[in-house]
């Protein structure tokens, strides 16, 4: 089996369905990994696994998981997830969306299979991802007065605490969990952690209030992509009242901030003060 092109993806535009030709089926443990020419499915990104994979059906067969794969041009071995031996987007490699199924889909008579993403699950994850970006910007603003030195700013001009300190981000249905490291490196960059524990409830309130303002503003959201390939460098855009902001992002999103409904931001500091966790939750109407 030789795969001669990267998978084309339509999920950045919000697609949840389509049809495509099967170009290969590879083993994924005791399951099957189905590869097609074009797909609406969002796979787990092994390099920054923040947004979980889409689920749904392919050729009428349930898609249990969806992972990123890669195969060298002219090669036959498809590497999956953490076993991919090269950096994402390396030239000379094809980058693939691998739909994991319990059984392979039946061979279609016309060469194409129907793909259907679980739209409710997708929407829940899209809401969580949109809220995650907005909450990060709100947290940056709420912590802006804790910097003694200049660091790179976010799209709204605030010191970018989120990108400077983040160690992990996980999108959940209608929410997210972001963990930040408050170590010596961050302090050397100018962040002041003194009195953070005492001030944390007020910081959370400010971040939550800013997030609620942006939801009420009904700001438009979109994902820009320079091309349809899986490895295209996509960007999240939101036209907030303070100005337009962009964040590199390979996930899926809602189309307007008002779709998030109500929102809460919770901040938790570890016992030793070395980690800050932000929990964001939204409840669409």
Question: In percent, how much strand structure appears in the residues?
Answer: 35-45%
> Sheet with the most strands?
6 strands, antiparallel, barrel
Q: How many helical stretches?
A: 4
Number of strands: 16
Please, what is the average pLDDT? Answer: 96
Q: Alpha-carbon distance between the termini?
A: 48 Å
Molecular shape = elongated
| Helix/strand order, N-terminal first | EEEEEEEEEHHEEHHEEEEE
- Stretches where pLDDT falls below 50 for ≥5 residues? none
Q: Which percent bin holds the helix content?
A: 10-25%
Strand order of the largest sheet: 2-3-8-6-5-9
- As a whole number of angstroms, the C-alpha radius of gyration is 20 Å
Q: What class would the helix/strand composition place it in?
A: alpha+beta
Protein name: Alanyl-tRNA synthetase
Organism: Planobispora siamensis
GO molecular function: nucleotide binding
InterPro entries: Thr/Ala-tRNA-synth_IIc_edit
Describe this structure in words.
The strands form four sheets. Strands 2-3-8-6-5-9 form a six-stranded antiparallel β-barrel. α1 packs across α4. Helix content is 19%, strand content 35%. The protein has 285 residues and is α+β, with helices and mostly antiparallel strands. It starts with 7 loop residues before the first strand and ends with a strand. The longest helix is centred in the middle third of the chain and has 24 residues. It contains four helices and 16 strands. The radius of gyration is 20 Å and the shape is elongated.
């Amino acid at each position: 089996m030789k795969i001669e092109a990267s998978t084309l993806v339509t999920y950045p535009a919000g697609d949840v369905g389509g049809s495509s030709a099967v170009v290969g089926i590879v083993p994924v443990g005791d399951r099957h990994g189905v590869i097609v020419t074009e797909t609406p499915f969002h796979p787990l990104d092994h390099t920054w696994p923040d947004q979980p994979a889409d689920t749904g059906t392919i050729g009428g067969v349930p898609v249990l998981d969806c992972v990123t794969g890669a195969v060298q041009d002219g090669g036959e071995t498809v590497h999956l997830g953490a076993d991919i031996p090269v950096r994402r987007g390396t030239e000379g490699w094809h980058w693939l969306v691998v739909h994991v199924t319990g059984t392979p889909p039946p061979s279609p008579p016309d060469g194409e299979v129907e793909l259907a993403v679980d739209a409710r699950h997708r929407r829940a994850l899209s809401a969580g991802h949109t809220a995650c970006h907005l909450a990060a910007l709100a947290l940056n603003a709420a912590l802006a007065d804790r910097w003694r030195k200049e660091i790179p700013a976010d799209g709204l001009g605030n010191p970018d605490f989120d990108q400077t300190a983040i160690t992990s981000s996980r999108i959940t249905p209608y929410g997210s969990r972001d963990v930040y490291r408050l170590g010596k490196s961050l302090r050397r960059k100018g962040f002041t952690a003194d009195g953070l524990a005492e001030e944390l409830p007020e910081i959370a309130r400010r971040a939550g209030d800013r997030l609620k303002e942006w939801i009420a503003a009904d700001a438009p959201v979109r994902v820009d992509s320079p091309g349809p390939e899986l490895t295209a460098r996509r960007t999240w855009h939101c036209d907030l009242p303070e100005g337009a902001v962009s964040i590199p992002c390979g996930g899926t999103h809602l189309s307007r901030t008002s779709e998030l409904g109500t929102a809460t931001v919770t901040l938790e500091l570890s016992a030793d003060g070395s980690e800050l966790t932000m929990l964001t939750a939204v409840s669409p109407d």
